[in-house]
Amino acid sequence: MYKAFYGLNDNPFSIAPNPHYMFLSDRHREALAHLTYGLGETGGFVLLTGEVGTGKTTVSRCLLQQLPENTDTAFILNPSLTELELLATLCDELAIQYGDHPTLKQLTDLLSKYLLENHKNGRNTVLIIDEAQHLRSEVLEQLRLLTNLETNTKKLLQVILIGQPELQQLLKRQDLRQLAQRITARYHLLPLDHDEVALYVLHRLKVAGRQEPLFTQKAIKVLHKHTGGIPRLINLLSERALMAGYGQAKVPIDHKMVNQAAVEVLGQIDTPNNKRWPFVVAVALVLAFGLSLYLFNRSAIDSRFMPNTADAAQTQTQVQTKTQSSVTASLTPAAVNQVTVQQPSAINAQQQLMRQAMAQSTSIENAFAGLFGLWNKQPIIGLSACQAAQQQDLACYQQQGNWHSIMRLNYPAVVYLQDAQTNVFYGVMVERQVDQILLQLGEQQFWVSKDWFDRHFSGTFEILWQPDAVIPRDISQSSSMAQVQWLENSLARVNKRPARLLTQFDTELEQQLMHFQRQHGLKPDGIAGNQTLVQLNLYLSQQGPRLSASVERS
């Protein structure tokens, strides 16, 4: 829309990762050098971390372009997988054929055979995992076991883990110390500084066809201030500023347009006008003090002429109570800190308390400790949460989903959350009442609304559950009739209908299974695989705590 106005051939600030616009700052080049060095070593793991939007994917794409031609690469973008699913995905990426319903051992054997053949043919194998902070400890341990395959001089599989800073914390866990010792190179990617922001903006404009600067120096300074040097945020604000300049038919882009873009994109209001607020507050305090002094002196005089002050005070108290009861907050501390009647000042204090709790809830181990407490269990020192669960006859289950996914399961959950600056923190869903949940952050609990939760939920949650003594592995048309009948009985309970006596895995059962899978965000393939069976068992189980005592299943 504005390309002709600015003399551009393309949109210079699209957030899509276009290789033509690749800009390598000194930090990006240094990160690339570390990764290249790490891959040249004989170790198994290389680590790249950085905040959201700092250019980790840019570095990884550049690295892929520099890999030797004798390198086979597997790229995993969604690491929220089980051990079996991860190995299956790795086989898919490397075009390794495997049969239906493979076991962990079968996939491991196929991968080992492939890696040995690749090495024999003079080829290297590299696995790159993006968003690796979402990997579970069991999956990381499985990766470490894969890298055990080696010759006298090198590992046959090299793994590059790319993720947010939480990945560094994850790898500090006691149960992952063996993997951490195998990291041969690591680099934490920092945001751009002020000069690099200027070069970054100029570079993208030149690639898009404009040779002259378009942003004033002050605009660049403000752009760096609002974005913190995060390339993705620079793109968003610059795009919005170009739209503003086009709407005003104004060139160049000045700092006022960037400030307005920050308000629209980031919700920030950080303009020079804010400097007036301390003066305004000071004046208000002086006036308030003067008014209170006047009223105090006036009341001392008038008290001689007001005989029924007790009744008046009672009336005033009733009015205040009625006014206070009409004030509601979007979040309130629960348990002993919960207040049912709140003034606006109390609400602000609670919001501040909430922000502090969010900032302090960066440990997933602490969140799991709260979840264990709801099951009357304890975490075990030296073991991961899932390992501790197995020791106590429980199991972990991680899923990607939303509010409705969690409500359908109706189990307390550790939820992965993000604040307005995309900093990750962890909470525990403890209880539900209509469209509110009781969220535990550290030692405190808060009632939050569904809207608040939707704004902060990253999409990942984990629950603890108590499986039946016997859970079938996979159920399909080739399964035994005992397993098929178990599936029929289970779906009959879900649909609140009488169970049929089956002699085969018929079409009606397949359709009901696919309907259940669609309801729970699973692939509707008509095969009751691991995820489907776990979801079904969770749905039907009567053991353990629940978010709500009575939930209408959908």
TrEMBL record:
<dbReference type="InterPro" id="IPR036366">
    <property type="entry name" value="PGBDSf"/>
</dbReference>
<dbReference type="InterPro" id="IPR002477">
    <property type="entry name" value="Peptidoglycan-bd-like"/>
</dbReference>
<protein>
    <submittedName>
        <fullName>AAA family ATPase</fullName>
    </submittedName>
</protein>
<keyword id="KW-1133">Transmembrane helix</keyword>
<dbReference type="InterPro" id="IPR036365">
    <property type="entry name" value="PGBD-like_sf"/>
</dbReference>
<keyword id="KW-0812">Transmembrane</keyword>
<dbReference type="InterPro" id="IPR003593">
    <property type="entry name" value="AAA+_ATPase"/>
</dbReference>
<dbReference type="InterPro" id="IPR027417">
    <property type="entry name" value="P-loop_NTPase"/>
</dbReference>
<dbReference type="GO" id="GO:0016887">
    <property type="term" value="F:ATP hydrolysis activity"/>
</dbReference>
<dbReference type="InterPro" id="IPR049945">
    <property type="entry name" value="AAA_22"/>
</dbReference>
<dbReference type="Pfam" id="PF13401">
    <property type="entry name" value="AAA_22"/>
</dbReference>
<dbReference type="Pfam" id="PF01471">
    <property type="entry name" value="PG_binding_1"/>
</dbReference>
<feature type="transmembrane region" description="Helical">
    <location>
        <begin position="277"/>
        <end position="296"/>
    </location>
</feature>
<feature type="domain" description="AAA+ ATPase">
    <location>
        <begin position="42"/>
        <end position="195"/>
    </location>
</feature>
<dbReference type="InterPro" id="IPR052026">
    <property type="entry name" value="ExeA_AAA_ATPase_DNA-bind"/>
</dbReference>
<keyword id="KW-0472">Membrane</keyword>
